[in-house]
Amino acid sequence: MSARPGLWAGAAAVWGKELRGEWRARYSIGSSLLFAAVTLAVLSFAAGPQARRPETAAVLLWTVLLFSATASLSHAFAREVEGGTWDLLRQAAGPGEVLLGKWLAGLSVLGLVEGFILAGGALLVAPSVGHPGGLCAILVAGTVALAVGLPLVAALLAQARSHGGLAAALAFPVLVPAVFASVSGTRRALEGTWPGGELRILVAFAAALALAGWRLFDFVWED
Amino acid sequence: MKWWQGGLFVWMAATIVAGFVYAPLARKLYEYTRIIYFHIPAAWVSMVAFFVAGIEGARYLLKRNPVNDLRSAAAARLGLVFCALATATGMLFAKAMWGEYWNWDPRQVTIFFLLLIYAAYLTLRAAVDDPERRARVSAVYAILAMITAPFLMFVLPRLSEFTLHPEPIVNGAGKLEMHPRMFGVFLSSTGAFTVLFFWILSLEVRAARARLASRAAPPREGREISLERALGT
């Protein structure tokens, strides 16, 4: 029996497996991009010229991002259970490697979806950005917070009877601090102010979730 | 009835009376000042319940004692009730003071999200069949919720520039701005609500333990009934 690889090597293997699976089946990226395109078009059309206002643009961006992220990441572990690969994954890698790999995969998928949403938003809404550096910092911090939190909820969901309907109900209340701070920070950055307070909240929240997730995932992972 | 249960009854009754006849009215809040002695303690207890649910969840994960899971679940159920009370009393205050039950005030919204977290926790419990797995998964969610709760209650409301809500008991500058008599009644009410919560929690846990024991125990001789009789066929 071969020894298990180290934490980072194992996480990279899980990350690679996730990306390869995504590339072959396109189960989450396809639906997420389509979902993002539809919601972005519908919401920006409904808001009309008002969508350019910083407060509306910030809400629009994070609404589309939150729902797209939930659509793509909430099934990260349920797919393993449904596909019968949960036990195989358990034999091949430890909980830390799996969680880290899933986080990296989530971040990759979310980064791609976010790029698509930002390009679509720039095309359809085209708000003026007063502080581009602040906007970038908030986008990175908010995305990391979502990418850390959603796979944890997804791991819990995989243990439940029905996965689909529960995803938003379980994930949204827990992720509210990240979404509130991201919306507020995006608004400030669009208005031209450095969103320092929001960034501190996002970093603290993401760090707290990551630490808790790291300690707790062993308990979700056990059979 | 034990002596302290009677004492709690007297304590709560005295606090209610003191809220109306002993504590002065706050400036700009008029007669609506009284709600401070019921609304804030209810919100406080809903936070305490969150921490009890999270800590008992953590204890379950460490010791695997089902009683810790029962305590965690009972605390979450009670937290939901107190959170609903805090939301409802807050809405009554909002209607009286600002003319609308719901004003999208950051504190109104964040306590509503606290309510949603409790509801999500109980929904998750209902969605897992295996008792051991249910306890484990719920404990993890309770701990995640315990991390979210302070951000919701203490951090996010201070981020917003718009608020109609009166200053917290300890304001942004860290100063206590409340008349000593009001503060005394407020502390008394908060203490009474907290003791009431732990009492109801102990009753809930005892009832849940009894249910658990009756399910685990084999049926006693002479009390077994046939399936046909049970179904009435």
Topology:
The complex is a heterodimer of chains A (223) and B (233).
Chain A: H1 7-25, H2 29-47, H3 54-73, H4 78-82, H5 86-92, H6 95-124, H7 132-157, H8 166-191, H9 196-221
Helix pairs in contact in A: 1-6, 2-3, 2-6, 3-6, 3-7, 3-8, 6-7, 7-8, 7-9, 8-9
Chain B: H1 3-21, H2 36-63, H3 66-98, H4 106-126, H5 131-159, H6 180-216, H7 227-231
Helix pairs in contact in B: 1-6, 2-3, 2-5, 2-6, 3-4, 3-5, 3-6, 4-5
Describe the 3D structure:
The complex is a heterodimer of chains A (223) and B (233). Chain A is built from nine helices and no strands. Chain A has 223 residues and is an all-alpha fold. The mean pLDDT of chain A is 87. By secondary structure, chain B is mostly helical. Chain B has seven helices and no strands. In chain B, helix 3 runs antiparallel to helix 6. The radius of gyration of chain B is 21 Å and the shape is globular. Classes of the chains: A mainly alpha (223), B mainly alpha (233). The interface between A and B is medium-sized, with 31 and 29 residues.
